[in-house]
């Protein structure tokens, strides 16, 4: 049996894997992660043909938030491709808004929309800040 006919040994596989890791850059992995998140987000939005039954607003939101968090880290390396990724992300955000709107509370009996929460008084934190999700410098 020649060396070409036998399967690689575990040591050979490990050496090949190490060789690939040496060439791999972190920004390449971040970019691939963003692309993967946008692709799976499209499926969770039901945008891909045949994926309508895969709609999952929670997963879609996670894909959007993950992409939004990672994109600034590699936008410079993407160059003009950053605009295409931003456009795809915008499409996912629009789809999320549409899907989330489908689950909105039904109008009241009079046909009016449910009342909005009261506006905060001057000097009090608004709903985003009081939820702890809004970062405010100095706090």
Shape descriptor: elongated
Pattern of helices and strands: HHHHH
The strand count comes to 0
**Uncertain spans:** 106-113
Count of individual helical segments: 5
Q: Which range best describes the helical content: under 10%, 10-25%, 25-40%, 40-55%, 55-70% or over 70%?
A: 55-70%
In terms of DSSP E residues, the strand content is under 5%
- Main sheet makeup: none
Which secondary-structure class do the elements indicate?
mainly alpha
Determine the N-to-C terminus distance: 70 Å
* Mean of residue pLDDT values: 82
Rg (C-alpha, Å): 23 Å
What can you see in these coordinates?
By secondary structure, the protein is an all-alpha fold. Helix content is 58%, strand content 0%. It has a domain of 95 residues. It contains 5 helices and no strands.
Quickly describe the structure.
With 139 residues, this protein is mainly α.
Protein traits:
elongated, single chain, mainly alpha, 139 residues, 5 helices
């Amino acid at each position: 049996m020649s060396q070409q006919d036998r399967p690689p040994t575990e040591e050979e596989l490990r050496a090949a894997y190490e060789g690939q890791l040496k060439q791999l850059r972190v920004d390449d992995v971040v970019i691939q992660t963003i692309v993967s998140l946008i692709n799976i987000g499209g499926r969770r939005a039901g945008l891909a043909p045949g994926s309508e039954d895969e709609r999952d607003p929670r997963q879609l939101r996670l894909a959007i938030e993950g992409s939004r968090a990672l994109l600034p880290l590699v936008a410079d390396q993407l160059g003009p491709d950053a605009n295409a990724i931003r456009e795809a992300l915008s499409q996912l955000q629009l789809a999320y808004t549409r899907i989330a709107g489908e689950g909105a509370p039904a109008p009241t009996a009079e046909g009016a929309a449910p009342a909005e929460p009261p506006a905060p008084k001057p000097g009090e934190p608004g709903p985003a800040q009081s939820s702890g999700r809004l970062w405010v410098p100095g706090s």
